[in-house]
Amino acid sequence: MSVIPNNFLWGGAAAANQYEGGYNEGGKGLSVADCFTAGEKNRRREYTDGVIEGKYYPSHIATDFYHNYKEDIKLFAGMGYKCFRTSIAWSRIFPEGDEAERNEEGLQFYDDVFDELLKYGIEPVITITHYEVPYGLVKKYGSFKSRKTIDCFVRYSEVIFKRYKDKVKYWMTFNEINTMAHDPAQQTGIRILEGENRKQVIYQAAHNMLVASAKAVKLGHEINPDFKIGCMICMPMFYPETCKPDDQIAAMQANDEVYFFSDVQCRGYYSAKAKRMFVKEELHIEMAEEDEQILREGSVDYIGFSYYMSGVSTSREVETVQGNMMKMVKNPYLVESEWGWGIDPVGFRFCLNCLYDRYQLPLFCVENGFGAHDELTSDGKVHDPYRIDYYRQHIEEMKKAMDIDGVDIIGFTAWGCIDLISAGSGEMKKRYGMIHVDRDNEGNGNLKRTIKDSYYWYKKVIATNGEDLD
């Protein structure tokens, strides 16, 4: 008998800003993601003021789910998906973010997508906003620098909760909300202006986001008590470099930065460490009188998270590397991907235990995957044993967490189940998918879909409920 329950949510994951395309079709407005240019390995993209002629913006077409959703969902069904995790593009529903009227054409698009998923018995798992705040809110209010954006987010959430209350059960509020501490521009479009205190801006905006999330959770439960609404955090999990006590403290502090957000969303209040940090850093966070009650009443039902790699912290003065937006020290015990991300399946088990022990809430791994340079062979195939090996090892460790450690895990969705744009650099050549899409870093290609070897492997994994990993 499998250690994984029969109702486990196997599936794949994507996001509107990296996959959907159709950036100016169907009444959609500009999002923050639409203002990021393409980049390449080890180079940040440029965040422009609107769209500048002559620059290439990969999200504008991405890999064009907007026009190919029926074909793609049929391919997902062919793998046996139980669920598909994606996001709704906020600016497809409210083009500027704060209109009184919603865009019906945008709402209908997601009706059509969800109907197509449900036709195949695939449960939609929906992130309310995934690095795609409407650019109009950045121009008018500075995004979540302003409490006005809280009201915009709640109004948007109410519209989609009511519209899809009979089609979507699983929701998450903000994708990888804790990356706000590292890249506020990508997370919400926030710019740190000359003369501004970076931490003050970040943590004030973070508070506004946490209040917005809590209000949405409470509202969602009122609209449909059967909704399951989670948070979503980026979870690298930091090890100390050595058993030196100062290294232990360095790792603890790195992990505390991750937990800052999940503590509030899961427990309903700021930790003592977070409050002390505000005092020590002389941060003056403006909070409304009712905010503490709102946070208490809006705690989440489950923890969605991404896991690609672990991190290492040290007390030494040493050069760090960047992995999924977070600074860390290289781990000499791990093999790295082409992009320098340490491959650590055992760290996945450790991460699962840390989260479950801390919160005692169900876990949902909504992102796990391997970015690599895939080759399309002359006979039209993609052989990706490295991706299969990555998933095999991580699923094995997930099973140990469930069987040996007693961790409650409700689902696993493979990130970039189909090739899409890298969030970190805007590249296409950093491919995650089990389905190849003919498109390159410059936007060339016919968008043809080609099944990779990993597609057939994952189909077998789902069919056997995780028992056959060979």
TrEMBL record:
Top-level taxon: Bacteria
Which Pfam families does the protein's record reference?
Glyco_hydro_1
Q: What class of enzyme is it?
A: hydrolase
EC? 3.2.1.86
* Molecular function as annotated in GO: 6-phospho-beta-glucosidase activity
> What SUPFAM superfamilies does its record include?
(Trans)glycosidases (SSF51445)
Q: Which family does it belong to?
A: Belongs to the glycosyl hydrolase 1 family.
In terms of PANTHER family, this protein maps to: ARYL-PHOSPHO-BETA-D-GLUCOSIDASE BGLA, GLYCOSYL HYDROLASE
**Protein name (Swiss-Prot/TrEMBL):** 6-phospho-beta-glucosidase
